[in-house]
Amino acid sequence: MRDVNYTLKRGDDWERLIIIKDKRTRRRRVPVEAAASVRIGALDYVIPTTITSEGGVSLCMTAANTEWMVDGEYLWDMVAIVSKSALLTSTPLTETVTAKGTITVTTYDNITPMDSDGAPTALDLVA
Fold first, then answer.
1. What does the pLDDT look like over 7-47, one tens digit per residue?
2. Domain locations in the chain as residue ranges
3. Prediction pTM value
4. CA dihedral 13, 104, 52, 63 (to 10 degrees)
5. Pairing mode, strands 72-83 and 31-40
């Protein structure tokens, strides 16, 4: 999959919806599970993901998740498992789909700087 680059404002909620489509037919492919992470420094943190009723993968971080992030570019990636089985077959066939890119974090131009201790307490580390 190609690179997908996003921007977010530090201290704001951030949500993106990724729709997976078949390369050949361009039809939607509904994932069965998905996981995403962002690399900050030398550590990888989990980006909370959910599979939506539209059949996409929702990546979302709350204001608490983004307020401690320092301005800059961070690498992120997502892995999703998509079922390839026909409706009436008993053989489970799956395909792994990936997406990656960068998240650019910027801060509002405030007179008073945002308070943050810089401790990443809002996101879990990737196990």
1. 999 889 999 999 998 888 888 888 999 999 999 888 899 99
2. 6-106
3. 0.79
4. -20
5. antiparallel
